[in-house]
Design brief:
Chain lengths: 142, 434
């Protein structure tokens, strides 16, 4: 199962990040997790939110370059080595991981957000190995 | 449609008409304009010396500086009470240049613009929306009267309030648009924001663009937004000479036909002032041969172009000037390299992932010029490699074309400034006095 990640392009300029956050706040889009990767000139802000479609629409209305992409949000146990076990499974399936970051919800388990080179294929691999992933509906109810 | 029979005269007849009008004009300014008489005396030439068109080269040039030196009416050849209209160009430094028209001049102007409108495909059936700023600038009123004269319905909407402009286009079924190329793109963008597709939902079939360069890349970009069938022609003029109407492109797209029965064009070497043969590139010099108020003789336009005298497929015999690739006034000197902003524009428009808006920033770091180009992303991406590829493509192309290293900054859509008149995309922050 995929979830939708909201990606926003931001220039490395004072106040730009906070403009994104205030658009989301005004539209009551709740941020569950974020990752900011940047160069000296610009960055990509990647967000997991409760309503990605609304977030994208409002950001575009406000002049941001924004899109949705498919990511897998995978539940992993809070124990040593569990992430590595997961990565081994994915590796074996021959899928590249483009990037990943954590997502914490108030529960015993941890989650990782994972963007793979082939999102169809990673879904198959995860399903075949009985790994639980979150959907957009799940995110809307967190 | 060809508006006037003068547009199709055989070359000998055009030249005979030009010579008699030139001789009359030279006699008149010698009699009536002390500044001209002085210039001619200094050059050792008298009106009788003009016996053929090639004798034009004996006359001294007039420059914009001459107009400033004689501000406001020093080069006028009529009493002020004969004037019926005064326009001025906004001088960025010091006094503006003032131009005045007699009733006869306004009639000439209207005639010239009527021809150019017809060259671009306009007819009495058109609803013409004029999105040029009305005021002291000659652009809007020139097109206004020329188009009205051929029977088109004029919508004098001027610039600004772009949403209302789109509403007029929908409600009045505007079929002809007069604008700068950059404002035409801006209007398409605003239409899009309003949920209006300019190609499908509007009836604009003709665009007469001017006051800004129309490069091939810009033309392509306009087709992208307004549809491939839009008839886009550029026209040329400057207030000193009259305003728009000096020349205009026909639908054969092979340069702009000069209204030679009113203006004699020459191409000179800008350094030596020597007249160059037809087909060679150099600075355009124009002599007004039917103006009453302000008949400028051998006016140096600073525009770089070439002239072609072969008859055109459209049936006109009027000579053609090549569409401008740059104005020498706009030329930038960056690390010793001559750069026209239009060259940078061409690179940006060639990159699929970028929008048509951009900004050129020049700074000085130590003793080195630093060139920064800001561009807008047209598509969204989740990938750094895509962003890097876009920036690199612009950088590499600039390097090949200009031989310069540039810093390329990617910006979100709709963040760079939009322009309604002539776009000002260059910010030169170098302090050149040091
Ligand atoms: Zn032609």
């Amino acid at each position: 199962m995929f979830a939708k990640q909201l990606t926003v392009f931001i220039e490395n300029r004072a106040g730009r990040l906070s403009e994104v956050l205030s658009v989301l706040k005004e539209n009551k889009v709740n941020i569950l997790s974020m990752s900011l990767a940047d160069t000296t000139e610009y960055g990509l802000l990647r967000l997991i939110v409760d309503n990605a479609t609304l977030g994208k629409e409002k950001l575009i209305e406000n002049g941001f370059s924004s899109l949705l992409s498919d990511v897998s949000i995978i539940k992993i146990a809070h124990t040593a080595g569990s992430l590595q076990t997961l990565l081994k499974v994915i590796d074996k399936g021959g899928v590249n991981i483009e990037y990943m970051y954590g997502l914490s919800i108030e529960s015993e388990d941890a989650y990782v957000v994972l963007k793979a080179s082939d999102s169809e294929k990673i879904d198959e691999i995860l399903n075949a190995n009985g790994v639980k992933t979150l959907s957009c509906e799940d995110l809307a109810h967190i | 449609m060809i508006w006037s029979k003068e547009e199709t005269l055989p070359r000998e007849e055009i030249e005979a008409l030009q010579l008699s009008r030139l001789q009359e004009t030279v006699h008149r300014v010698y009699e009536k304009v002390p500044a001209y008489r002085k210039k001619m005396e200094d050059a050792g030439v008298r009106p009788e010396d003009i016996q053929s068109l090639s004798d034009l080269a004996k006359l001294p040039f007039v420059t914009k500086q001459d107009m400033r030196d004689t501000y406001p009416f020093g080069l006028f050849a009529v009493e002020k009470d004969k004037l019926v209209r005064i326009h001025a160009s906004s001088g960025t430094t010091g006094k503006p240049t003032v131009v005045g028209y007699t009733q006869g001049d306004l009639d000439t102007w209207t005639e010239c613009v009527s021809r150019i409108a017809c060259m671009g495909g306009a007819s009495a059936k058109d609803v013409a929306q004029i999105c040029f700023g009305y005021g002291m600038f000659t652009g809007a009123l020139g097109l206004h009267y020329g188009l009205e004269n051929i029977g088109a319905a004029i919508v004098p909407s001027s610039t600004g309030n772009s949403q209302k402009q789109i509403m007029y286009m929908q409600d009045f079924e505007t079929s002809l648009l007069v604008a700068t190329p950059s404002y035409a793109l801006r209007l398409a963008e605003v239409a899009g924001e309003m949920g209006v597709d300019p190609e499908k939902d509007l009836k604009v079939k003709i665009a007469l663009v001017g006051s800004e360069l129309l490069t091939d890349a810009m033309r392509e970009e306009m087709h992208k937004y307004w549809g491939k069938d839009l008839l886009i022609t550029s026209n040329y003029g400057m207030s000193e000479l009259m305003g728009p109407g000096v020349s205009g492109e026909c639908l054969e797209h092979c340069g702009m036909h000069i209204n030679e029965d009113y203006f004699i064009p020459e191409i000179i070497d800008p350094k030596t002032g020597e007249v160059l043969p037809a087909g060679e590139q150099g600075e355009l010099v124009i002599t007004c041969i039917k103006k009453e108020g302000l008949p400028l003789i051998r006016y140096r336009t600073k525009d770089i172009t070439r002239l072609f005298y072969e008859p055109c497929k459209c049936g006109r015999t009027l000579c053609r000037m090549e569409n401008l690739s740059g104005r020498s006034d706009d030329m930038l000197k960056i690390r010793g390299v001559n750069v026209f902003p239009s060259q940078i524009e061409e690179v940006i428009l060639s990159v699929e992932e970028l929008g048509p808006h951009y900004e050129i920033i020049l700074e000085r770091e130590g003793y080195l010029d630093k060139l920064t180009v800001k561009v807008e992303l047209a598509h969204s991406t989740d990938s750094f490699s895509v962003l890097e590829k876009i920036a690199k493509e612009v950088k590499d192309k600039l390097k090949v074309i200009l031989g310069l290293d540039a810093r390329v900054l990617l910006e979100s859509p709709n963040t760079l400034q939009r322009f309604e008149g002539k776009a000002k995309r260059v910010k030169d922050l170098r302090n050149l006095s040091h």
